[in-house]
Amino acid sequence: MWDQIKDALYGATHRVLVGVANFLPALLALVLAVLLASLVGWLLGALVGVILRALDCDKRLQKWGFVVLAEWSPKNSPTLLLRKTVTWTVVVLGWLVGLTAFGAGVTPQLIVNVVESLPNLGTAIVLVLLGVLLARFLSRAVLISAVNMQIQSARLLSLAVKWLVLVFAAAMALDHLHVGGEIVRLGFAILFGGIVLAVALAIGLGSKEIVSRSWERQTHSKDEPPEDALKHL
Amino acid sequence: MHEPSANQRISATAPTTPATAEIVVGVPSCNHAATVAQVLRAAQAGLGEFLSGHSGLLVSADVRSSDATRAQVRELRAEIPLLHALGPADSGGDTTSPGVEIRELRMILELAHQVRARACLVLDASLTSMGADWVARLVRPILNDQFDLVAPCFARHKLDGAISNGIVYPLTRALYGKRVRQPLGSVFALSGRLVERFLARRVWDIEVSALSTDARTVSETICAEFAVCQALLGPAEHAGSASSQDLSSVLAAVLGSVFDEMNHNVSFWQKVRGSEPVRWFGTPVEIADNPPPVDAHKMWESFSLGCRTLQDVWSAVLPPATLLALKYLAQDEAAAMPDDLWARIVYDFALGYRLHVMNRGHLLRALTPLYLGWLACFVREMGTAHAHDVERRVHQLCMVYEAQKPYLISRWRWPDRFNP
What pLDDT is stored for residue A139 in this prediction? Predict the structure, then answer.
């Protein structure tokens, strides 16, 4: 009886010790991977930070119209945001590598999925960035031209153009990521149609004054002096 | 492909080029069929009537016309023996490459250098009001008084030339220290040694707009410390050209050329303080003092609309104090825009142009409402004043530009210190 209890205890202890012996190296590997990844991440982040500061990234991005990026960034600094993104990406990769040491079948599959989706994600980000740049450029061009043409609803026109381009870019990015499927396309079509209608109305209402002024000029007799005969140059 | 020189071109079109000529009168043209004959006839009359003691050569340079301009010039050669036509012999012309005015101008200067001309007069082919005496008025200061550049000073109504009065003249005067009243005059006369320098320094080897030609001529001459003077002429009427364009396009073209020159000559103008008068030749030509109809209220409305909607754009260029001042100004139509505020705005835009704070076309066009605001104030103030009072007022504005120049230099040297 005693021998059986002893065997059971030894067996249990052996199994626990074997389990711990199997688990400990993997745990140590995880800790080591995370520590190493943290160190590499911090170094890479610091390097990215130095390069971006040297390139005056914050001011340049603001100049190029990425105001939203600055607003979302910690301390209004896209440099800091990018630096932290790089650091945490490396740390997460370290975790994934560490978890793989446990031999779980799910983790390698997760890594494969993440790596496979990276090109699409990159393309989508580029699409959105280009959309933001184009929206900024076109909306400013429309705003200045409309003000110089004395269209009262200049700001509305400019906003409409901006959102038209942004919605278009966002829809393209989502479509590229295969997110939402038909719902995105349907939503985009409705939104795009709505904005086009709003633009048409805005242009119609805004240019009413210009059309009437032009019509008045045409109906005036030729003897009348022009509205503004000043030579600017 | 290497462009043929004036020598090569003239051999195909005018085999009897004289070895020397004291005066070369050049007319660069491009699709000026309606006016080129008139200008060439006036130039021929000017050479014959007023400068008969000097050997002259009349040159028409045309590379790109697709209308009847070159046919007109060919017909005129039977009437004017002095006339030499520079350009391709065929009727097609090169209509694809850029730089309409510069290539023709370069050809005229090369020819003037080739015939060892003492004076080279460049005329605008779109002029419809040119008198025969203009040739002598522009050339004599070079022949008799050893000046190197004669800039024109056209007679005009007191409120006309507002871009020149409010921006170009005060700015070039403050920058380069010479009071050249109409720096973008579209005609000018150069001495032989200035022509030589321009060709040696390849001043015209980059393609620039027609307006930049005038701006570059004046700035290069002053920076090289050649002697400049001015000739008083009658009113200048042009066929088509800038008057048919919208104001913001004209303003963008003019300021773009002036700001480009400013960037090009930084080392010179940063050392200049104050300004000195430039000698005048000729007698002032009186023009009827009937004011053109100007709607200052409409201009003010444009300014007001700009203040309401363009704050985001202006804030990339103008410091907060200026934006605040404009905001207060827009609330009171009776208020006048202070000269120092206006001068600083122009300087800030020049700096914004240099720093590329946004697309340069956008930047220059965004100045239009501000210019209209200044002009509305100027018209209200000077609408009933005498022409002499207007001239005094422009001089006063110029003095403020000169007084504000340290602000420009500080911002130019340390843009971040002042940046909004």
Answer: 93
Cβ <8 Å between B293 and A225 = yes
Contact criterion met (CB < 8 Å) for B295 and A155: no
Q: Which amino acid is at B237?
A: E
**Residue B289 belongs to a domain:** no
Same domain, B142 and B256: yes
Per-position DSSP letters for B25-72, written without gaps between them: EEEE-SS-TTTHHHHHHHHHHHHHHH-TTS-EEEEEE-SS--SSHHHH
Range with the poorest average pLDDT among A200-214, B139-153, B399-413: A200-214
| Separation between Cα atoms, residue B248 and residue B110, nearest integer Å | 35
354-413 of B, contacting A, C-beta below 8 A: 357-359, 362, 365-366, 368-369, 375, 379
Asked if B293 reaches chain A (Cβ–Cβ under 8 Å), the answer is yes
For residue A155, the chain B residues in CB contact (below 8 A) are 309
What is the tens place of the pLDDT at every residue in B53-62?
A: 888 889 888 8
Residue B262 belongs to domain spanning:
6-281
How would CATH label the architecture of A110-218?
A: Orthogonal Bundle (1.10)
Considering only CA atoms, which of A115, A163, A158, A121 is closest in space to residue A140?
A158
Residue A28: count of CB within 10 angstroms of its CB? 12
Same domain, B273 and B300: no
Residues from chain A contacting residue B159 (CB–CB below 8 Å): 230
Q: B114 lies in a domain?
A: yes
Residues B108, B20 share a domain: yes
| Residue range A84-102: mean pLDDT, rounded | 84
Within this chain, do residues B214 and B71 fall inside the same structural domain, yes or no? Answer: yes
Q: Looking at the predicted structure, is the pLDDT value of residue B141 above 90?
A: yes
